[in-house]
Amino acid sequence: MLFKKINRSKAAIAGLGALVMMLGTACEALDFADPNSPVIEVASVQTLVTGAEAGMRVSLAIYLRDVSVIGREAYYFEPADPRYTGELLRGPIDAGGFLLSRPWDARYNVVKNTLLLQEKTASLDAAGKAGVDGFAKTIRAYQLLMNLNLLNDNGLQLDFTGSYGDFSTKAQAMTEITSLLSGGATDLAAADSSFPFSLSSGFDGFDTPVTFATFNWALAARVAVYNGDYSGALTALGLSFIDGAGDFDLGVYHAYSTAANDQLNEIFESITAETIKYFGHPTFEADADAGDARFAAKVYERTASVTFDELTTDLGMSLVSSSSASLPIIRNEELILLRAEANIGLGNYTTAQTDLDIIRAAAGLASVTITSTNALDQLLHEKRYSLFGEGHRWIDMRRYGKLADLPLDRDGDVIIENFPIPEDEIREN
Amino acid sequence: MKVNRLLLFLAMTLGIQLLSAQTRTLTGRVTQDGTGEPLPGTQLFVKDTFIGTTSDAEGYYSLDAPPEDFLLVVAFVGYKTAELTVAAGVTTLDISMISDVLRSEEVVVTGLASSVKRRNLANAVASVSAADLIPAPAQTLDAALSGKFAGITVRQNTGAPGGGMSVNLRGVSTIQGATQPLYVIDGVIINNAANQSGIDVVSAAAGAGSARPQGQPSNRIGDINPQDIESVEVLKGASAAAIYGSKAANGVIIITTKRGKPGDIQFRISQRTGATSILKKQGHRSYDSYADAVDVYGADLSALGLNQAGQDAYATFRALVGIDSVNNMSTEALDSKFKSNWANVDIDYEDELYGETGLLTETNISAGGGTVRTRYYAAATIKNEEGIIKGTGYSKYSGQLNLDHRFSDRATLSVSTNLARTESDRGITGNDNTNTTFGFSLAFTPSFVDIRKDADGNYPDHPSNPSNPLHTRDVLINNEIVFRSIGSFNFKYKLLDNADMSLDFVATGGGDFYNQSNLVHSPPELQFERNGDQPGQSIQANTTSINSNLSLSLVNRLNMGTTSLVTSAGAQWETADLNQVTVVASNTVVTQTNVDQAANVFVLQSIRKQQDRGFFIQTEATLNDVIYLTAAMRADRSSTIGDTEKFFTFPKAAASIRLSELGFWEPLSGLSDEFKIRFAYGQTGNLPTAAAKFTALNPLNIGGNSGLVTSTRRGDEGIRPEITTEIEYGIDASLFGGFGSIELSMFNQKITDLLLFSATPSSSGFSSEVINGGEMTVKGIEASLNLNLVRSSAFEWATRINFYRTRSVVDSLVVDPFNLGGFATFLGTYRIEEGWSPTAIVGSETETVITQTADGPDTSEVHIKLGDETPDFQMSFNNIFRIGPFGVRFLLDWKKGGDIINLGALLTDLGGTTADYDQEAKFLVRGGASDGVSDTTYTVEQAGPGRLGLLGTATAPYVGDGSYLKLRELAIEYNVPQSIVGGILGGVVDYVTLSVTGRNLWMMTDYTGYDPEVSQFGNVAIGGSVDTIPFPSSKSIFFDISFGL
After folding, report:
1. Which chain B residues contact residue A105 at CB under 8 A?
2. Which one of A221, A241, A261 terminates a domain?
3. B678, B692, B834, B1035: least buried by Cβ within 10 Å?
4. Considering only CB atoms, which chain B residues are within 8 Å of A101?
5. What is the average pLDDT across B1009-1035?
6. Cβ contacts (< 8 Å) between B698 and chain A: which residues?
7. How many Cβ pairs closer than 8 A exist between chain A and B?
8. What is the C-alpha to C-alpha distance for residues B995 and B973, in angstroms, rounded to an integer?
9. Residue A294, pLDDT score
C-alpha cells in the first residue's frame, strides 16, 4: 500500500526501537540480596555461634515457669493469663498453646542454628572444624534434652527436615542425645587449643575446647543419671569440672545484658515491686530444714500473702538479683549432687554421704546419715533446695516415679507427667 | 481499500489547515437540549486546527472562525460531541447539546498508551469526574470514592483524622497477598503503604516493626488532594487491568489531575467552613447513686460485677489480647477508691472524650488557562480539620502545577507536579494490651467514677483502669507529618502522521517521593507510665519512600476506511524503595521527646526494595465503529519473584459489538438507541512481598556480640505471583432516548497459585513457610441504572443506582484448613477451608459431623459458620435535583449484610459498661452440646453477663450484623443568578455559588459499635472486620462559597 512504501524506513526504525525497548527490560539483573538481613551464605561461624548462644535464652523463662509450676516449686500469678495456674496445675496441656510451643519452637530454632553452623566450616582446618562440631553437637544435645524434658514419654522429633516424620521414642531420643554428647567430646578432643570463635561471659572459664569439654561431660553426666547409667555418670563426672571443694556456682550460664538487641532476664522481679508474678510454692517453706541457708537465699517473705485463683503464698523469689543476672545451664553444685545420686544408684552410700555433707554444710545444716531407705528421699530433698527454680524438681521426681508425692493445692489439680506432641508437628490431612 | 476516499479526506483536511488569515467572528450560546440551561465551559473548535474557545458562565461563546465553510466541533463532558458545518457568512450559531447518558464519547484508557471511546469499550470501566467525585468535601481521596461505583467497596478502618482506608475492587481475591489496588496518577505508580506509626508500642498491640501492625495506620493515598483530580477511572478486574500485569490483581485506579483549558486565565476560589462531630455514640450503662452502682456491680467492685465465667473469660481474653492487670488491690481499697471518685452524676464519658465539635476550614484556589499551544493549571489547597477528640486533627497544604505544551504539530509535552504536606494528630485508639487506648479505657470506666481534671488541674488516677483516658488525651502525642512530591511527564512525538496511518512515540514517567515522620510521645507523668518499669516513651519513626517508573511505547494507528487498527507496544521500568527507621526510647526525661534523653533505646530498620520490568503489546481494531476487538499481552519480571529472569505473561482479549448500529435493531431503537454487548478475558498477577523469597537471618545478640538466628519463616526461592484470570461480560444500553441507561456486568475470576503462609513443624527450626498453593473463585454481578427522571428548564431530577454483589469461594487448598485473623478462635476468627467463603467467621461453636467411611463411621468436630464479612449486596443511590438556581444532590450508600467480630462489645461487657448490659436478651447458640448438634436459645435477664457467660461456648453474641444505610454526601447549592453576579466588581466575577454540603451526616445500622465500617488490622484481605473500638466515626457539614474570576 501507498503509505507503506513512503514510510518503510521510518517504520523499520520504529519497529527496531520497539524491539530494543522490549529487550532492554530483559537484560537487567533483578536478583539482589535481601536488604534487611544477611543470607546464610554470608553468615560466619561466629555469628551463628553467638546466635545459637543467644537463642538458647529465647522463651527460657516460659520453660522454667512450666517445669517449676508443675514441679510445685513455684506459682506464676499472671492476671493476664490463667493458664499458668490452670493448665499447668489442672491439665491438660494444650498441644497448640504457648506454654509448650514457645519453648519447643525456640529450642528447635537453636538446633537449626547448630546444623547451619556445621555447614559453615569449609574454610577451617580439621582442628578448627572439630572445635565447631564439638560446640554444635554439645549445644544441640542440650537443646534436645530441654524439649525431651517436656515431652518425656511422648518422645522427640529427631528428623529436622520438617517432613512430618515419625516421632522417636524417649529411649531413642536419649540415645541420640548421649551420642551427640560423646561425639561432641571426641570432636573437642581433636580441636585446637582455642575455638575459632568467641563465647559470651556465660562461658567464662569454659571457652576453649579443653574447658568446654568439661561442660560437655557435665551435661553427659546429667544425661547418664537420667538414663540410670550411674557408672557412666561417674566416668563423665570425672571428666567434668566437678570440684567438691570448689565454688558451687562454678559453671556455665546464660548471660543477659541491657546492650542493644540483647535480652533481659525475664525471671527477675524486684523485691521492692508492689506486685510480682513469680512466687515460691508454700511447701518450699514448710518442708525446709530450720536454718537452711538455701531457703533464705532463694526466696523471701512478702509483706502480705497473695491469693490468686484460690492459691495462696507469701514467698517471693530472690533467685535472680537483677535483670542482667545470669541463669545457670549447669553448675558445680548440681554435679556434686549428681555424683551423690550416681553413688546412691550404685549403693555406695558412704561415698554419697560425703557429697551430701558438703552440700548440707554449705547450707549451714548438720549431716544427715543416709541409708538405703532414706538415701533417695534425702538426695531429692537436697536437690530440691540446692537447685530450686533451676528446672529440676519435676524431672527428678518423675524419674523416680514420685510425682504422686508432689502436693496438690486444690480439688481437681493434677500432676502433669508429659507435655503432648505439639499440634504443628502433626499433619491433619 | 478505499484509497481514493482517504486521499479526498486528506485533501480536505489539508485544505482546512491552509486557510487564509482572514477571519469572521462566530458567536452564539451553548445550551442543554430539553432544558435550555446554559452550558458553561463547553469547548468549541474548528476541526483539525488550533482555533478554539470555551463558552462562558452563561454559555456564550465567541470564536474567530475562518470565513469559508468549516466543521465546528463542540464538546462537553457528559454530552454527545457535536460536529456542525458552519457555512460561509454565518456569524451567529446557537448550539443545543444532547446529554450522553452512556457517556459514549468519553475517552477511556485501555492500555498504557492507548484509549478508546466508551461506546466501544469492551469492559465495565467505572469513571467519575471532578464534580461527581467530591460534591461534599472528603478528607482523603479514598473516602471520596465511597458509594460511587458498582463493584468498589471502600471501608474506613478507623475514624481517626488522616485516614486509614481499604479499597476493594470486586471482592476478596487473595488470602494473604496484597489487597489494595494499584494507584496511577498521571502515569506515576504511587506508593500507598500504610506505615506503622509506633503507637502500637505504647498500646503494646503489636511490636515495633511487626509484620502485622495494628494501630490502624493511615495509608498514603490520603496525601492526594481530591481537589486536584479531574477524573478517576477504575479498572476493576483482571480483564480490564491485564495490561498492568503482575501488580494489577486488585485492580487499577487511574487518576488524572486537572489541566488548563485554552482561553483567558480563569480563577476559581472556594472557601469552606464547617464543623464535625461524632456520628454515633455507643451509649453506656448508667446508675442513679453509688448504692445503685454497688447494688448492680455487687459489693466487690474489684471484679466489676463479673461472675466467675466472666472473670475467666476476661482473664483468657486479656491473655490473648493481652491487657495488663489492674493493680492487685484489695476489695476494700478498691471500694474506697471508687467512693472517693464518686461523681454524684452520671457522667457521659463518650461526651467527655468524643464530644468535641471540630472546626473545619478549607481554601481552594486554582488558576487555569493558556493558548492551544501552551496551557497551565495551578492550584493550592489549605485544609485544616479538627477532630472530635480534643487535640486530634488533620491538615493539608497542597500545591499543583500542570503544564501542557505543544512544540509543534508533532511533539507535545505534559508535565504534572504536586507538592503536599499533610499532618495528622490521631490520638490513641484501637486494640491495646495496656488499657491505654481511649476505647479500652472507657470500656472500663463506669459512669459513676469521676476521673475528670480536678479544681487544681490534676487528673485523678483511674480506680478501675491502668490509665486515665482524659489525661492521656491531653498529654499524649501521636503525630504524623508527611512531605510528598509527585512529578510526572508525558511526551508524545508523532513519528508519522497522515490520514491513513500515524505512529506515535510516547514516553511517560515520573516519581513519587515522600518522607513520613511519626512522633509518639507518652510522657512519664501518665498513670500507666508512672506505674510501669520504664516510665515515659518516645517513639520516632521516619519513613522515606521513592517510587519511579518510566514507560516508552510506540502507538500505531491505521485507518482503513471504516476500520481502524491501533497497535501499541512498549516497555516499562518500575522501582519502589522504602526505608523505615524507628527509634523506640523508654524511661524518658520529663518534658523531653528527644530519643537520646532516655535510659533505654532500641532501633529498628526495615528496607523494601523492588524492581520490576515489563513489556507489552496491544492491538485494538474498530470495525465500522460497531465492532471493537482487542488483544494484548503483558510480560513482567520482578525482583520479588523467585526466578527474577523469568517473564510472566498476562494475556488479554476483549470484544464489543454495538447491536444498535446494526440494521435489525431499527425497530428497537425507540427503546434503546445505543445497545452494546461486550465480552472480556484477561489475566493479572499479585506479587509476593519483597521478603517472601528470602529466608532471613535475624539478629540476636548476647554479651555485646552480634549473632544471627534463622527466622521462623522459611522463604520460597521459587515463589511465583498469584494469578487471577477473569472473564467479564455485560451490556450497556441507553433507555428511551435520553431518559436513562443501564450497564450490567457479570464476572468470574479464578485465582490460582494463591500466596499462603503455611504452618510447618517447628522441629525444622521454622514455624511457617511462604508457598504458592490453592485456588479460589470470585463471582459477581454489577449493575448501574441511570435515569433522567425529570428534565425541564424549571426542574431536573437525575438518579443513578448502583448494585453489586460478589461471592468468593476457596476451591482448593494445599494446606490444612486454618483459622486466620482475629485473636483466638473463641474470640471470633476467619476460617479458610475448601468450599467455604474465605471471609466466613467462626468461633467456639462446633458441630459433630459423622461421615461413613470404609472403616466405619468417622466423627469429627467441625466449625459452624457464624457469619461472613462479605455483604449480601451493596447499593448506592445518587440523586441530583436542580430547581432553577438551586441544586440538591445526595448519595445514599447501603450495605446489606456483612458481619463483624465485635470485640468492642466484649470489652464493654467486661467493664460492665455496655449500654444494653442490663437488658433482657436472647441468644441462639448453635451446636456446642457434647451430645451432638443442638441449637439452644438462651434467654438471659442481663445481656452483658449473658454474653460473657456464653463466651467459650458461643462466640455468636459477639458477631454483629454490619448492615448500614449511610447518607454519604449531601450538597445543596445555590448558583447566584447572573443578574446579580454581573453587578459584582464591575462584572469581573463569572459565577458565585453558595452551598451547604455534608458528609456521612446520617447512618442507620443495628450494629452496636461506632461504625460497621471498621478494620482493626487495616488493609488485610482476610480478618479485617474485627472491632476493638477504633476512633469513632464523625459526620461533617460545610458552608461553602465559591466563585470564579
Report:
1. 712, 762, 767
2. A241
3. B834
4. 762
5. 90
6. 37
7. 237
8. 4
9. 95
Average pLDDT over residues B98-125: 76
Owning domain of residue A181: 39-241
Q: Are B726 and B654 in contact (CB under 8 A)?
A: no
How far is B220 from chain A, CA to nearest CA, in Å? 23
pTM of the predicted structure, to 2 decimals = 0.85
Whether A91 and A165 share a structural domain: yes
Q: Which residues contact A242 (CB under 8 A, 6 or more apart)?
A: A218, A221, A332, A335, A336, A339
Helix boundaries (H) for B57-206: 130-133, 141-145, 199-203
Task: For an interface test with A, give the residue of B440, B595, B617, B709 to mutate (most A CBs within 10 A).
Answer: B709
Specify the higher pLDDT residue, A290 or B336. A290
Please indicate whether, in this complex, the C-beta atoms of A10 and B608 are within 8 angstroms of each other: no
- Class (C level, CATH) for B19-97: mainly beta
Q: Which residues of A touch B605 (CB under 8 A)?
A: 36
Rounded CA gap, B540 and B602, in Å? 11
Q: In this complex, do B501 and A7 lie within 8 Å of one another by their Cβ atoms?
A: yes
Q: Are residues A64 and A181 in the same domain?
A: yes
Query: Chain B, 566-605: which have a CB under 8 Å from a chain A CB?
Result: 569-573, 600-603, 605
Task: Extract the C-alpha cell encoding B332.
Answer: 476494700
Structurally, chain A folds into a number of domains equal to 3
Answer whether A105 sits within 8 Å of B498, measured CB to CB.
no
The Cα B571–Cα B616 span in angstroms is 6
Which of B501, B691, B701 has the CB atom closest to A259's CB atom? B701
Q: Tell me whether A258 touches chain B (CB under 8 Å).
A: yes
Q: Nearest chain B Cα to A35, which residue?
A: B607
Phi, psi torsion values for A408, nearest 5 degrees: -110, 130
* pLDDT computed for residue B343 by the predictor: 56
Residues of B in contact with A202 (CB under 8 A): 702-703
| Residue A305 and residue A216 in one domain | no
Per-residue pLDDT tens for B818-857? 888 888 788 889 999 999 999 999 988 888 777 777 777 7
Beta bridge partners of B709: B698
Domain B141-275+358-903+963-1044: give its CATH code.
2.40.170.20
H/E stretch holding B587 reads strand B563-588
Q: Cβ contacts of residue A387 below 8 Å, gap of 6+? A: A333, A334, A337, A393
The answer to whether A245 contacts chain B (CB < 8 Å) is: no
> Lowest-confidence range among A86-100, B230-244, B279-293, B595-609?
B279-293
Residue B210 has pLDDT above 90, yes or no: no
